[in-house]
């Protein structure tokens, strides 16, 4: 009868791994990477809010006279403003779908809204025919624009990796 002796340095790595870490030949492992940013949530909420404001205003006004006004929320809207809000809302919602897009688009759209807000606040008489209550619209766009731009600048991009095991 022969006995085999194991030298202390002879070890089998498979034997030292816990059962859950062993790789079985029929098992497939792939890594799932998820990237997200709080800027996506901010962009989504801004988009949703703008679409609701613009949509309700457009339903109340209709398409026959785009300079007619209807009060929605805290200011009077024209049909033109409602269409602008719908378009901006759609762009924010599209940006919210991807972490990197949310950050860069929030900065760009935020700066655009700040510019539009400043124009409305500086020249309310010249923009009221097209925007409704131009001063309130301007201040609202300023606030939304600053929030959007800051969220794009300050929000981190978070990446997580996870291994998925398939049999």
- The overall number of domains is 1
Question: How many beta-strand elements?
Answer: 4
Strand order of the largest sheet: 1-4
Spatial separation of the terminal alpha carbons: 42 Å
Please work out how many helical segments DSSP would assign.
Answer: 6
Low-confidence blocks of residues: 1-8
User: Could you tell me the radius of gyration in angstroms?
Assistant: 28 Å
Percentage of residues assigned to helices: 55-70%
Q: How would you characterize this protein structure?
A:
It is a single chain. With 167 residues, the chain is α+β, with helices and mostly antiparallel strands. It has one domain. 59% of the residues lie in helices and 16% in strands. It has helices at residues 13-16, 38-61, 79-95, 99-122, 124-131, 134-154, and strands spanning 28-36, 69-72, 75-78, 158-166. The strands form two sheets. Strands 1-4 form a two-stranded antiparallel sheet. It is elongated. 32% of the residues are buried.
Sequence-ordered SSE layout with sheet pairings:
Blueprint: H1 13-16, E1 28-36, H2 38-61, E2 69-72, E3 75-78, H3 79-95, H4 99-122, H5 124-131, H6 134-154, E4 158-166
Antiparallel strand pairs: 1-4, 2-3
What's the short story on this structure?
By secondary structure, the chain is of the alpha+beta class.
Write out key terms for the chains shown:
disordered N terminus; two-stranded antiparallel ribbon; 167 residues; single chain; two-stranded antiparallel sheet; alpha+beta
